[in-house]
Amino acid sequence: MRIWLLVLAALPLAAQQTAPTAQETPATPVAAPAAPQTPAVPLTTPETTVTGSLDLGYRFNSVGGSLDTYRFVVDMGSGVRLLGLDLTIESAARKWFDRIDVRGSGWGGDPYTMAHLDATRHDWYRLNFDYRDVAYFNFLPSFADPTIGSGIFLDQQSFDSHRRMMDFELELLPGHWIVPYVGYSHDSGFGTGITDFVNGINSYPVEDRPRDSTNNYRGGVRLELKKFHVTLEQGGTTFKDDQQVFTSTQNFGNNTSPLLGEQLNLTGLTQTYGVRGDSIYSKAVLIANPTPWLDLFGEFLYSRPDTSVNYSQYNVGQFADLATLLFYTSELDLLNAAAKQPHTTARLGFEIRPMRRLRVIESWTTDRLHNASSALLNQQILTPAMTTLLNSFTDLLVMNYNREQVDALFDLTSRITLRGGYRYEWGDGLTDGALISGAVTETGQLKRQVGLGGMSYRALAGLSMSVDFEGSGGDRGYFRTSLQDYQKVRIQARYQVRPSLVFSAGFSVLSNQNPNPAVNYSFLSRDNSASVTWTPNNSKRVTVTGEYTRATLRSDINYIVPQDFATANSIYRDNVHEASTLVNLVIPGFGANGPRLSAGGSLFRSSGSRPTEFYQPTMRFTTPSYKHISWYGEWRYYGFAEPFYLYEGFRSQLVTIGMHFTR
Amino acid sequence: MRADNLIPLAWPPRFASAPPPPPGPRPFGAGHPQALAVAAAVFLLAAAALAQSPPADAAAPAQSPPPDTKPATYVGSEACQMCHEDIYNAFQKNPHIVVEKDKHRGFETGACESCHGPGSKHVESTSAADIRDPAKLPVAEADRGCLSCHLNRPTQVGRIQSGHARNQVSCVTCHAMHKSAEDLVPRRRAAINAKCAGCHTAEWASFQRPYKHKLPEGAMSCVDCHNPHGSLLSHSMRTVSANEPGCLNCHGDKRGPFVFEHAPLRFEGCTVCHEPHGSANPRMLTRAEVRFVCLECHANTPVTAAASHTLGGVPPSFHDLLAPQFQNCTVCHVKVHGSNVSQALLR
């Protein structure tokens, strides 16, 4: 309290202008140093230089077991690949650029294709461009196949798709007090898959063609002045989703039992989603350090995404409306809908240093989101009798979240820092009531008071350790599984025995309890890890890294079985051993630039609710063949097994032979 | 009491307000005279109020020789080069070399001393005690040397509250000041991941699981999702489009807004159902079977007074979980992230 009073009293003084205080008296100039014995590296080279490397190779692969799971988990194919490109172009003239970095990998058919470019011209611009094409393949019958008991292996939520992402940002006048910038991002997804068409009591796996894209445009300016910084950004997004779902073959669905003697089926379907969205957003960031002992920061973020929907569906077959017990053979649905979601976030805080050893950090955060939507559904039963149903829907979701946090950090000694704090989180939520509950709305509340603590210790001989703790007695959370009565501890330690040998270890535990009889939630997770890095003689001959992690998770929570209303327990267990190592060795007798051998890999074994084994050993041999060229051969093995789902296991060997060019 | 004990926070002076470049004396904290006076007063009074032990200087025996009160002065980087040539040469490839060359930043030909402070005494004595070594300073004090220039950058807005700052992870833990541009700010994904994995061992181990984001393959890096300097979201999660969670940067089809929202996505984010670092469960789910991911919230429990503040407890009361059709909820609830057509997220 005394400190705060002092600080408050001192604040007005800070605004007064006083004569400069000479903290140090001018000293006599130091004599000019003697000329260096060796010439310095010149600041500029006389010409444009290009340095970098290129990896080009051919990969062979063989897969045994489930190819679908292999594609889901690994998905590396055969063929010629540009495995890596890393170029740096530096211009001595610096006319148009100082430096350009170009990187790429995975070109030629790999599931992850990347390109990246950074270009800078000091005081003029900084340009970043990033491109990624990531393939997603997902076909695991164990995930979503209600017919798996019949021996039909069909993942009804599968897809074979790509996501392409591109990001471009240009910053002008970097390093100046005013820095304008513009940016553009594009994100798109497309492919094929299987999804379900749900009608009444039956659902039918049908073909799916997802196709969406998002564009993001943004521009802003950063003002970097003597005592404060301001960023102002204005942006917008456009979004479209043209997913199509269709089938033209007869399909009896997942429920093959006749209903009142009628066999339900689907013979034709066209679902067309025409979703369009746009958003504007604003961002303002202020950071100020008006005095050396006070930093202020604030953020204001606002976005207002909108969505409009035009959906049509035409289905033919044999269907039943359970509400009216009407059987019908064709249906046409048309839906128009819209949603708006203004979202405001703000944060304000400061760090004050009332004395040398003490820092106090205080912040307030609020996050407010309000989703309002409406829809008009025109549902027409075309045959046997024309019936038109017009339904209008509204929906809402309101979330108000607030947080206040204060941390005090005290340097007990120059090597020990203690930390303590308090966080209070509160908020409320409102959603439309679930159809079954009959309630018009549902409300949720959040109220959590959290104690914070920690300690950092840095010893002379390369030993450092930090302890982090937070805990709450629990009050109210939005969901049954939210954090309630919880304690979280994290300990990390690092010991650098010598410059070439580093040990580190970590331990973390999270315990969360919700003793409410209707919930009875008990959650405990533990992670223990240790690692070692050995780089003798500055890695000229040998490098060894190794890491081991043991992770366990135990979760129990009550639920009520719908068919008999008996109380049951959802039990989840995960018991993991994970280890990885890599040894790099320069083959003796050939000098420092001689052949190299790398060997290592990782293993993952888990037992519990979904026992899994996943092994990834690897070995690579590199031998120089010419001044800037080396050959390499690489072998990788992937072994994956799940005792509960043996049909999803696979073993794969990948052999890559390639050339590595350097300049 | 030494002046730098009184006003450590004022050092080094901000570039924008720094006096002309060295050589020559540079007043300590010249940019904040009034604040320095206040800070000094506050410190003195607070120190007295808390009855802290006096600094070691005050306890020095009277018979010891008087300390050298002559302040150090700036001597320029070439003086440093004489003994630290390897560092000097490596520094030529470091982006901070701009400080050496740019007269507007106040340290032209004196980049070394922009971080290490005036070096004349060190040049004379060659003693490590006569030069400021940020690596040996308390973390907060060392960081303030960096933040005197870098605080006012957008990525720093969260640093004051980030876990790294709270746990005394200093700037130089991740950023090598004397080496190449790549060492200063790693740009290659493998280098970024290796840097983070050096401390976050358990997190990196999660990426060895079969279902994960593709970091070991080089398709992503930790900073695609996290801002190591801090964020207003928990776990230093990045934000996109102002205040949307960083996950939506790639998963744009989950952005919405949806006509019918699934509340957990907005209230607690993707990690309610997914383990983003990696899982033994397909699609990085938190549970081995889809139905339990859903049932743990939609537990069919009646809305009791004690639990009335929770959302989503009631459905699915009519599902027969013994039937295979109802054992994987997403078979029917295909739009589980939010639907534009169906309130029950069926289409």
What do these coordinates show?
By secondary structure, chain A is mainly beta. In chain A, 3% of the residues lie in helices and 68% in strands. Chain A contains 2 helices and 29 strands. Chain A has helices spanning 2-15, 67-73, and strands at residues 49-65, 79-90, 99-105, 112-121, 125-138, 158-172, 178-199, 202-209, 211-224, 228-241, 244-247, 265-291, 294-321, 326-340, 343-355, 358-383, 387-411, 416-432, 441-458, 463-472, 485-498, 501-514, 521-534, 542-560, 567-586, 596-608, 612-626, 629-641, 650-662. Chain A has a 29-stranded antiparallel sheet that branches. Chain A is globular and about 85 Å long. In chain A, 31% of the residues are buried. Residues 1-44 of chain A have low confidence and may be disordered. By secondary structure, chain B is mainly alpha-helical. Among the domains of chain B are: 3-55 and 70-148, no CATH class; 256-339, no CATH class. Chain B has 15 helices and 4 strands. Chain B has helices spanning 3-6, 33-49, 77-81, 85-91, 97-101, 111-116, 120-125, 139-150, 163-166, 171-174, 181-184, 189-197, 201-206, 263-267, 290-295; strands at residues 239-240, 244-245, 260-261, 338-339. A two-stranded antiparallel sheet of chain B has the order 1-2. Chain B has a two-stranded antiparallel ribbon with strand order 3-4. In chain B, strand 1 and strand 2 (244-245) form a beta hairpin. Chain B is elongated and about 85 Å long. Mean pLDDT of chain B is 77; it is low at 1-62. The chains are: A mainly beta (663), B mainly alpha (347).
